[in-house]
Write a structure and sequence with these properties.
Layout: E1 23-29, E2 41-48, E3 54-55, E4 60-65, E5 75-78, E6 82-83, E7 88-95, E8 108-109, E9 119-124, H1 135-139, E10 144-150, E11 170-173, H2 183-186, E12 187-190, H3 223-227, E13 239-251, E14 256-261, E15 274-280, E16 291-301, E17 310-322, E18 331-332, H4 362-367, E19 373-383, E20 390-394, E21 419-424, E22 439-451, E23 455-460, E24 465-467, E25 483-494, H5 500-513, E26 519-525, H6 540-552, E27 559-561, E28 579-584, E29 590-592, E30 605-608, E31 611-614, E32 619-620, E33 635-641, E34 644-652, H7 674-694, E35 700-705, H8 713-718, E36 725-726, E37 739-741, E38 744-746, E39 749-753, E40 760-764, E41 781-786
Parallel strand pairs: 7-8, 15-17, 18-19, 21-23, 25-26, 34-35
Antiparallel strand pairs: 1-2, 1-11, 2-7, 3-6, 4-5, 4-9, 9-10, 11-12, 13-14, 13-16, 14-15, 16-17, 19-20, 19-22, 20-21, 22-23, 22-24, 25-41, 26-28, 27-28, 29-33, 30-31, 32-33, 33-34, 35-39, 36-39, 37-38, 40-41
């Protein structure tokens, strides 16, 4: 490409109609693996017509669709090394399911799925994605060393693009490497003929799948080659031969296999040096410290439909060369090494083909270490150990710390990056029972893995010592004589068939930790035979056992009100028929019954000569509306405390099931369940508005498990027009949580009040979510309201 043409570049001699004195794009092929193709992979071949080596450090090959749209972006494959004088340099790109012949060993690897018929390839002095999308704009970019448009490409050099590219045809320069800055003149179509820097052509070298050479000699592909610079292996679907590595961990339960790591890494921080070798149902026979050669097929394993993938070698043949070898050094995970940004965005699409940026994004950093030995020291537990032998720690002790030792989740835009899951690789032992705020003292080390549950995790071969920091359950104060105490508590699928221990522990939470509130809204009370799906909908036996247990724990003799759902119409565990229930202490508060409410009849607000009341109490809010399909309907009750009327709305909005994970491949993740929760919130908001329209001084308490955060669309919809105040926002930021998930302390449960409720004391009572031993997975919360001090409006 010369100065006389449309493009310019710096620090390179000008190209003319004679052979260029610098690097050029020699051949482009995008039909690899397509129907009719012989080669299994796309490629770009570079060449050096000069008399001195051309250094490719900091260079890249980039691809743009032939007719770019507003959303099109250049895709980048970084290059390393140099092109010797007169030599070629082969860049392997995307693979397909067709073809029979592998490329010769590539000099650089990417995963760009190039079009067979139309596109633009640029050789760029830099690794930042280009932004130009017209020939004129690209001509003005001095970082472009050479550019080739083929097919009908809009971005090209000269009078037109190179023509003739197809599934079976590449476009290539003549052997003279003549560069007139006119793609149509410089390139002709023909059978693809890739050549690498060693002069190998298809069939002349291993190419990742050949079996030439001694059985005890490594093949030509290293782990970093098959891992590549994106989340997808450029060798996916291909067989690789005698890949060398040291065994660093062996998994003998669950997904059987072992990790190998190359003790001789390359210089590219994006390419992992380790890979998991999946042995299927065969228990691995290798041991940690074995030096091995592995032959097998490279594949991408997806733990779920929305997760990222694990690059694996499957169907392996393993040769053990020696045993007892030193393991490669582990990479340290700490506040310095893990970036503060979480993951790149792809406008809701997959980030898999994006070049990794391990110094920018935490998830890219972890991906660049996939399978490698990592280590951290003296890490605080931020997610209690569970029944699956997992716990969460943070390697960033100062990141959004809660008052009790967790890590607060307070924004969609900046998820916590220091969290990492820890699992024991030793199946003969389990992780110690750890609570939030405890510490894994000393060093924890092991291969870095990825799963659908939580994302990246350390498969610990060495586990730190657990230090118990003495986290205690909280006790809230008793309400004063003139305070109405109202609480909400999700009791996690409680039914009459559960153990007495479960009833006793949940009851203690009400009687002792919550100090016997006047009103308790319970979520997830099941019918009397739980998951047995025989049409039973009554919860009388369940509630009798629970209130008896509360009384035995020192609490009052509670009465209850609820509405039985239509069988299997409210979601939750099939056959369980979960519902909200009001408990109330009749010595302190009275329930105003307005009979007639049922599963499908809506309650409403009416004005009477005595004031505002509900048509049905207990009643449901618009239960036949589509917002409540396969979900719990809000339960509304009318209460009287010391002559003051109070309306309580108990909620359990639809769960987050079906949402894409924050660590998944689609970014930003879709929160599909939010649409229905927002509709549910709008229904409750409308009901409260109708109450306030009838009586602007009405005292309403809206509470329950909303399954969404205080900064969510759900809550902003619920509070629209200032009809409700979310009390969680009245707490210090470090105390705003009711639930812990994947090491994130977050708010799912809420109490909100109408404007007339002006004198209150609010508390989240932490007794479950932070503990390994839980009665429920939610923490209850309580508000104490001095109705005599609530001013009228």
């Amino acid at each position: 490409m010369g100065a006389a043409g449309a493009f310019a570049f710096t620090a390179l001699p000008a190209a003319h109609a004679a052979p260029s004195a610098s690097a050029v794009i020699a051949e482009v092929y995008g039909g690899g693996g397509n129907s009719g193709a012989t080669l299994t992979r796309d490629f770009v071949e570079l060449a050096n017509a000069g008399s001195t080596a051309y250094d490719l450090s900091g260079h890249s090959v980039q691809y743009l669709p032939g007719t770019p749209s507003a959303g099109s972006a250049w895709q980048v494959t970084a290059l390393t090394g140099a092109i010797a004088p007169g030599a070629r340099y082969l860049v392997g790109e995307g693979t397909g399911s067709g073809g029979t012949t592998a490329l010769p060993t590539t000099d650089a690897t990417g995963s760009i799925a190039m079009s067979a018929t139309s596109g633009t390839i640029a050789l760029v002095s830099g690794t930042t994605a280009l932004t130009c999308k017209t020939a004129a704009d690209c001509a003005a970019d001095p970082s472009i060393v050479d550019l080739t448009g083929y097919g009908t490409a809009v971005v090209r050099e000269g009078s037109g693009p190179a023509t003739g590219a197809s599934n079976t045809a590449a476009v290539a320069r003549a052997d003279s490497l003549a560069d007139t800055d006119d793609n149509a003149a410089d390139f002709t179509a023909g059978a693809p003929s890739p050549v690498n820097s060693a002069g190998q052509t298809p069939g002349s070298g291993d190419g990742g799948g050949g079996d030439g050479g001694s059985p005890t000699d490594p093949g030509t592909v290293r782990v970093h080659d098959l891992q590549g610079t994106t989340r997808l292996s450029p060798y996916s679907g291909q067989t690789v031969t005698r890949v060398p590595g040291i065994v660093t961990g062996v998994r003998t339960g669950g997904s059987l296999g072992y990790w190998i790591q190359d003790p001789t890494p390359d210089a590219d921080p994006r390419t992992s040096e380790a890979v998991f070798v999946y042995t299927g149902s065969t228990k691995p026979t290798v041991a940690v410290g074995d030096s091995v050669l592995v032959t097998g097929k490279v594949s991408e394993y997806y733990p779920s439909s929305t997760s990222q993938s694990n690059t694996e070698i499957t169907g392996p043949t393993t040769t053990v060369l020696s045993s007892g070898n030193a393991l490669p050094d582990a990479v340290t995970l700490d506040a310095t090494s893990v970036p503060d940004a979480y993951i790149p965005t792809a406008s809701g699409g997959s980030v898999e083909s994006l070049p990794l940026q391990p110094t920018v994004y935490a998830q890219d950093f972890f991906e660049s270490l996939e399978g490698m030995r990592v280590t951290f020291a003296d890490a605080r537990v931020v997610g209690a150990s569970d029944a699956y032998g997992e716990l969460w720690v943070t390697v960033k002790p100062d990141e959004n710390a809660t008052a009790r030792g967790g890590t607060l989740y307070s924004s969609y835009d900046r998820p916590n990056t220091g969290r990492i899951e820890v699992m024991s690789l030793d199946t003969t032992s389990t992780l110690p029972a750890a609570n939030v705020g405890d510490e894994l003292s000393g060093t924890t080390t092991g291969p870095l893995d990825y799963s659908t549950y939580g994302g990246y995790n350390v498969q610990a071969t060495q586990l730190g010592t657990l230090v118990d920091n003495g986290l205690k359950q909280e006790l809230t104060r008793r309400q004063k004589k003139d305070e109405l105490a109202v609480a909400t508590y999700n009791v996690e699928n409680l039914d009459a068939l559960d153990t007495q221990e479960k009833f006793d522990r949940l009851a203690e939470g009400v009687a002792v930790n919550l100090n016997s509130p006047d009103i308790v809204a319970l979520e997830e009370i099941q019918d009397d035979n739980g998951a047995t799906n025989d049409g039973t909908v009554s919860a009388e036996a369940t509630l009798k056992r629970f209130t008896d247990a509360v009384r035995a724990a020192g609490g009052p003799v509670y009465k209850w009100r609820y509405i039985s759902p239509t069988n299997d119409a409210d979601g939750g565990e099939p056959g369980g028929n979960i519902r909200q229930v009001f408990l109330f202490n009749p010595k302190r508060v009275s329930f105003t019954d307005h009979p007639g409410g049922d599963a499908t009849t809506a309650t409403s607000v009416v004005k009477t000569r005595k004031g505002v009341e509900l048509t049905y109490s207990p009643g449901r809010i618009d239960p036949t509306d589509a917002a409540w399909e396969d979900s719990r309907k809000p339960l509304v009750g009318e209460f009287t405390f010391q002559g003051e009327q109070v309306f309580v709305v108990a909620n359990h909005f639809i769960s987050k099931g079906g949402d894409q994970p924050i660590h998944g491949r689609y970014q930003p993740p879709a929160r599909s369940s939010e649409t229905q929760r927002a509709a549910q919130a709008a229904e409750v908001n409308t009901f409260v508005k109708s109450l306030l329209a009838a009586d602007k001084n009405a005292k309403a308490i809206v509470l329950g498990d909303l399954n969404d955060y205080e900064f969510s669309r759900t809550v902003t919809t619920l509070t629209a027009d200032n009809v409700l105040k979310p009390l969680i926002t009245t707490l210090p930021a470090a105390e705003r949580y009711t639930y812990v998930y994947d090491g994130n302390s977050q708010t799912l449960d809420h109490i909100l009040t109408s404007p007339a409720v002006t004198s209150f004391n609010y508390d989240v009572v932490h007794i479950n979510a932070e503990f390994a031993d839980q009665a429920s997975d939610h923490d209850p919360q309580i508000v104490r309201i001095d109705l005599s001090k609530c001013r009228e409006h």
